[in-house]
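Following up on my earlier message about zinc ion. Here are the inputs again, as you asked, copied directly from the submission form:
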Amino acid sequence: MSEYSGGCLCGNIRYKITEEPIFPHFCSCRMCQRWSGSAVAAWVDFPRASLIFEGSGGEPALYRTCETTQRGFCPVCGSGICALDDGSEYVSITVGTLDDPNQIVPEAQSFPEFAPSWLKVESVVYEKAEANSKKTTTAKLARKVCKLERRKY
Ligand SMILES: [Zn+2]
Ligand SMILES: [Zn+2]
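Thanks, got it. Here's what our run produced:
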């Protein structure tokens, strides 16, 4: 059984997951950019029921970023930990908060059209993201565009 663990910058929020990941991907939508402070965020989805928060801070604080999605972060240090789509059985975890980010290799890039023009995510082919989104329901969910997400900030 695989085990994944991670946490925020200050250690207040710690998590553990014992299920298999799906849909490892980059996202360069404007929301992920603003939220992460980076040009692109790396995400991976896990069954929500398998996620256990075991740090002293308990569960991350939540900020609703659009009608259907909340994002979890550490209220002490601000690290972005997760994203939760309402009603979804999956939770998206930021690859950068894993204790070993090498465990996950992103295979797709969502919203490459919103990435800064200087950003080249060369390990990912956009067509592959499209193909994946047709294959899996969760990928479809992940690509379900929030109207806000398309808004120019
Ligand atoms: Zn923290
Ligand atoms: Zn995004």
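One observation from looking it over: The chain has one domain: 4-150. Hope that helps, and feel free to reply on this thread.
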